[in-house]
Amino acid sequence: MKTMYGRQFATMVGMVLLSFLMLGASFATLSYQYTIREKKDTLERNAKYIAEFTSDSLNTGGELVWQTGAFQSYLNSVAQVSDTRIMVATPEGVVVYATSSGDALPGLQYASLPQQTVDDIQRGTCTGMTTLDGMYDEARYLVGLPITSATGHLQGLVLVSSSASNISGVWHDLFGILLMTTLAVVLIAAIISSVTSMHQSQPIKEVAAAARQFGLGQLDVRVDVGNRRDEVGELAEAFNAMAESLAVSEQRRTEFIANVSHELKTPMTTIAGFADGILDGTIPRSEERHYLEIISSETRRLSRLVRSMLDLSRLQSDERAAQQQFDISETLVRTLVALESKVNAKTLEVDAQVPDEPVPVWGDQDAITQVCYNLLDNAIKFSQEGGVLGIGVTVKGQKATITVSNQGETIPPEELSLVFDRFHKTDHSRSADRDGVGLGLYIVKTILNSHKENITCTSEDGVTRFVFTLTRA
Questions:
Q1: pLDDT bracket for residue 361 (50, 70, 90)
Q2: Cβ neighbours of residue 233 under 8 Å, at least 6 residues apart?
Q3: Residue 174 half-sphere exposure toward CB, CA atoms < 13 A
Q4: What mean pLDDT comes out for the span 394-400?
Q5: Average pLDDT of 379-400?
Q6: What is the 3-state secondary structure (H, E, C) of the chain?
Q7: Residue pLDDT, tens place only, 293-345
Q8: Do residues 274 and 243 lie in contact, with contact meaning Cβ atoms separated by under 8 Å?
Q9: Taking residues 429-447, what's their average pLDDT?
Q10: pLDDT band, residue 58 (cuts 50/70/90)
Q11: Is residue 263 in a domain?
């Protein structure tokens, strides 16, 4: 029973059998009690009629009434109609007449009843299954009543018995009905279990097959969920979501490798080409200094790329200082002052909307300083000459909101969702921004994610705005 079908089938069959066992036991018990009670009431009623008839006959006709034809005919008729055996005995327990289904039983006449039975009848009544110490060839259900006169004098005993086969026959019929019903229900349960198990297990088999294909590198495999909205459907949807996420991650990894290769290849090719030109004399001595400056610039660019990648690796491994309380307004302004030369180089006008009072926040101050530096450096780099560089700090509830904006070319809407990706540049030729490596905004996003904070970017009508939040201290 290792399969889902086997376990479900065994569980269903077990529940059906247990249910029918409990139902059959309860029904059999109730049927037995009902049959015994009905049999007892019938036998007691017949025994009472016989006792009253015998008592009346004794009162009017003498002591040997059981030998008369009328009396025997009456007993035979009662025995035949009720399919019982009737015995009439003296007060001492000596059988004087016995009949069964209309036929007299001379073999039982003048036989002595068991003393215990006689004593029970003399005390009032006697009921139960008995063979009367072998007087019956099989156990029968017996009811015995005393025959008394109007004055209460004991005149004799009457015993009426019925075959136990009637009761066992009911049990046999009941058992047969329960058996056939159980087999029919188990068969129906097997069919339903087979259909439902196949319906439920098919998506799981598809998930398993897809997982094996995933292991072989086929990341485009998906499971057909269809219209299922149950747990199995949720599993298939979760698997598809995981597969999509893995496919995206793999795509990003491939792009990352390609981007790193491109970023490393370009300056290294430049350095090697110009160095070889200087060494083999292709480049005139008068121009060697110019090309050496290019080699130096490309070397520093490689250094920045490696440093950024190391910073990114450190941030992604969560190797950062413990959070501390600091003033975000002071940090933002101090970072802007550090970039004063770049601001002046583009003759930018600074619009600072920063509160006079401190705005304390929680975070890694060095990491948040890097966030401010990257955002301001990016804003300055892509600002138009003589444009406005905006910074702002506002407070709302438990959050401080920091804004960095610039005037320049509007970022296309399809690019907005990609500005925080690794090595993403809006200039796809990668020639305009020779100083950048395409990791600044990705580092910003990574740092803020590690602080469980959000950052958004909007670009409309030539104004690009970055907004992020920090938790107030």
A1: very high
A2: 203, 225, 226
A3: 19
A4: 92
A5: 92
A6: CCCHHHHHHHHHHHHHHHHHHHHHHHHHHHHHHHHHHHHHHHHHHHHHHHHHHHHHHHHHHCCCHHHCHHHHHHHHHHHHHHCCEEEEECCCCEEEEEEECCEECHHHCCCECCHHHHHHHHHCCEEEEECCCCCCCCCEEEEEEEEECCCCCEEEEEEEEEECHHHHHHHHHHHHHHHHHHHHHHHHHHHHHHHHHHHHHHHHHHHHHHHHHHHCCCCCCCCCCCCCCCHHHHHHHHHHHHHHHHHHHHHHHHHHHHHHHHHHHHHHHHHHHHHHHHHCCCCCHHHHHHHHHHHHHHHHHHHHHHHHHHHHHHHHCCCCCCCEEEEHHHHHHHHHHHCHHHHHHCCCEEEEECCCCCCEEEECHHHHHHHHHHHHHHHHHCCCCCCEEEEEEEEECCEEEEEEEEECCCCCHHHHCCCCCCCCCCCCCCCCCCCCCCCHHHHHHHHHHHCCCCEEEEEECCEEEEEEEEEEC
A7: 888 888 887 887 777 677 666 666 555 556 789 999 999 999 999 889 889 99
A8: no
A9: 65
A10: low
A11: no
Mean pLDDT of the chain: 80
Does the pTM surpass 0.70? The reply is no
Mean pLDDT of 130-138: 86
High-pLDDT (> 70) share of the chain, %: 84
**297 occurs within a structural domain:** no
Residue 30 has pLDDT above 80, yes or no: no
Q: What's the alpha-carbon Rg for the chain, to the nearest Å?
A: 52
The CATH number given to whatever domain includes residue 433 is 3.30.565.10
pLDDT at 429: 40
Residue 270 domain-assigned (yes or no) = no
Separation of alpha carbons 174 and 168, rounded Å: 10
Could you tell me if residue 178 is inside a domain?
no
HSE at residue 466, side-chain half, CA atoms within 13 A, is: 22
Mean pLDDT for the stretch of residues 75-98: 87
Structure tokens at 107: 């073999």
Give the chain's domain count.
2
- From 150, 169, 188, give the residue that closes a domain: 169
Domain boundary among 134, 149, 169: 169
- The mean per-residue pLDDT over the stretch 253-275 comes to 76
Closest CA to 404 of 436, 430, 382: 382
In angstroms, rounded to a whole number, what is the distance separating the alpha carbons of residues 51 and 177? 40
Range of the domain at 120: 4-169
